[in-house]
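Our consortium's second objective concerns turning raw sequence data into structural hypotheses that experimental partners can test. To show how far this objective has progressed, the report includes one record in full. It was chosen at random from the queue rather than selected for favorable results. The single chain below, 401 residues long, was entered without modification.
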Amino acid sequence: MQALSKLASQLNEKTFELEIKSADNRILQEQLQMKVSENDEMQETILLLRRQLNSLSDRSSGNSQQVSEAGAKPVRTCPEGFLEKNFEEGKGISSYEENYADENTPTSVMSLNRIFNLEDSKESNNDLKNQVHMQAAEIENLKQEKVRLIEEKDGLEIQSQKLAEEASYAKELAGAAAIELRNLAEEVTKLSYDNAKLTGDLAATREAHCRSICCQRSVSYDLKHARPDGRPRKPDNGVLVEELQKELNARYQREAVLETSLSEKDQIEVELRTRLDEAKQREEDLENELANMWVLVAKLRMSGINADDFSSEGLHALNISQTRVRNEYLQSNGLSNKMFEEDEVYENMDKMSTLEESRASYLKERRRCKELESLVSRLKVCMLQTKLLNILHAMCSLNVG
């Protein structure tokens, strides 16, 4: 039963671990979904940045073409054409006011305006290039982030797959443990049935033994009443029943005598114990009196009383102690005589040992039956322990694998 409780506790632990792993798997799946959504958002931002980059590159190419065309064409002297050019380049009315040329404006001023326009276009192109480089670097960073997210996604998928495999393994292990528990329950029931069968067989053997004893007694009785010529007598059934009844009555009387003797023995033991306790108490009293006497002697020596008084008092105390010792000796002699009488009673009791022998044989058989029952129970326990050890070794090997 302890092994079954251990297996049940291990099964509960495995189910608890499985629930924890399933919860971890759910959390990892949620994180994976969040990462996937973030990856999708990053892809959308990458597409938007690419579109912006393409539009900026188109604008930069258009501006460079406009600048090249502006450098190849002569500068218009009319203010309307110059306004159209500045509107296309996005310069506005302020550039028109600065670059407006009159008919009276010299050519050197017009060339200077042209040079300033080229420098402005170069600066704008440099700004666009810097923006393009920054966006390209950002795109590279986004690509690296995308690769990292893809790797994390793969790792999370692998981890979720491992957790799913562990969950399936734990389920299989729980199923195997349940099957093993069922088999153990069947084995326990089978062993209980076998135990009941063995107890029945034991009772049958006891009955057979009792019958054999009765048969032996009947055979001995027939041998006692056989004729000297070898032919057995044919007594009447009534005579046989009467003799058996007499024998039973005699045995009952012997049992009663034995019981009374045992009760008397117990009473004598109780009396002896009480007397022994009394003797011990008296011995202690005598020792105390002797100590008091020695104290009295020491006091007398210290006080300097006459020797005659001291001798008379000492003799009186010694006489008292001797009388007490004699009384104790007489009581002990009485006890020894009583014990001698009890020994004689026990010798007489040994003569009536037929019933005791039968009881001893019965007790011997009973002890043998108990030993057989204990051996059977031990064998059952050993079988259960070996099976449980095999199951635990298999479970440990599965966990290690």
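The partners drew two points from this record. Helices lie at 2-72, 79-89, 93-99, 107-224, 237-303, 307-351, 354-400. Residues 72-109, 227-235, 305-315, 328-340 have pLDDT under 50 and may be disordered. Both points have been shared with the crystallography group to help prioritize constructs.
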